[in-house]
Amino acid sequence: MQQPPKPRLQHLDMLRGLCALGVVVSHLRALLVVPYAEAAGHGLLDKFLFTLGGLGHECVIAFFALSGFLVGGSTLAAMRAGRFSWADYGAARLSRLWTVLIPALALTALWDFAGAALGPAAAYQGALAAVLPSGPTPAEPANHSLVTLLGNVFFLQTIETPVFGSNRPLWSLANEAWYYLAFPLLAFAFFHRAPLARGLYASAGLLTLAILPAEIALLGLPWLAGALAADHPARPSPARALGGALAAVAAIGVAHAWRNIFGDVILGCAIAFWLRDLAAFRPFGGLYGGAAQGLSEISYTLYAVHFPLLLMLWFWLLAPGQSQPGVAVLLRMAALMAVALLYATCVWFLFERRTNVARGWMRGLMRWRPL
């Protein structure tokens, strides 16, 4: 019997959608606007633009906390109820990742090759790195080798291979995939009844973390904090939700001041425990609810596919020009944001929308036994 769909957590949907938009805004700001030090003026609007356009990395850290809350929390609930299945879990996680990642890799190759043909010479080898440090650099040019492609398919980017092509945002998918593996292994060290099995699961989970780069392992702490927060739900409390929001804002300030892994961990953990209060807050419905659901639905696709397209358009139509902050560049950013949203919606419709179909196919494959 098919289980009824889980109720949506509307405010978490909105946060996830806004974080995806935040990543896109940060890339648009880097592509279109001169650096802050080169801006002719530093008025209130200018500072707002640079502040908003500088939160892309913090949005990714929030994604880790959200993923831990949603995936880790449901995993702990399944283990407590005795209904956790490695086959179902593996099918759900791999179908979720691959249904978007594999098309994103193909589209990255398409847009990179188009940009190389239409844009400035050697742009994808880092010729414009002085203008656009967030794109390809001479030290890290766009890499389209088969080894890099396969490394990205199997979540080894930033571990054994670079990210594929120009698609820098794909770095975080390696983190996600390895957290998906390490977390249930470590959780079973507490939930399994057999002492020997507990020891084996704990050893496997710790070994998984030990072979990862230290930064990836440490960024798993916000993911873990999200899972623990989901496992201890909160009662609705506007005051506590406001306090959590203020703590998250303060943590953003710490992360910006430190600009290192420890600031990221503090920020991610602050957001993780704020999510409990957001999840408990009553839904608003109406336009807010529709926007939250719509943005959340396409957020993963938007994150994974937007940058190669925007980079290609910049190389082709604008490079190496960048503009002073002002109304004109804001309108240009809005137009390109609309292009990115339309593009991501089309890609979502073709691929991510069918994740449940891929999940069912993979579940059957994992449960298949030869005669």
Ordered list of secondary-structure elements with their pairings:
Layout: H1 10-32, H2 44-52, H3 56-81, H4 86-118, H5 146-153, H6 171-191, H7 195-210, H8 214-218, H9 220-230, H10 238-258, H11 261-280, H12 286-317, H13 327-350, H14 355-367
Helix pairs in contact: 1-3, 1-12, 1-13, 3-6, 3-9, 3-11, 4-12, 4-14, 6-7, 9-11, 10-11, 12-13
Describe the protein in words.
With about 375 residues, this protein is mostly helical. It has one domain. About 70% of the residues lie in helices and about 0% in strands. It contains 14 helices and no strands. α1 packs across α13 and α12 crosses α13. The radius of gyration is 21 Å and the shape is globular. The model has no long low-confidence stretch (mean pLDDT about 90).
The protein's oligomeric status is single chain
How would you describe the shape? globular
Poorly predicted ranges:
none
Number of domains: 1
Continuous helix count: 14
Tell me the span between the first and last alpha carbons: 26 Å
Structural class: mainly alpha
Question: If you compute it from the alpha carbons, what radius of gyration comes out, rounded to the nearest whole angstrom?
Answer: 21 Å
In brief, what are we looking at here?
The chain has helices at 10-32, 44-52, 56-81, 86-118, 146-153, 171-191, 195-210, 214-218, 220-230, 238-258, 261-280, 286-317, 327-350, 355-367. It has 371 residues and is mainly alpha-helical.
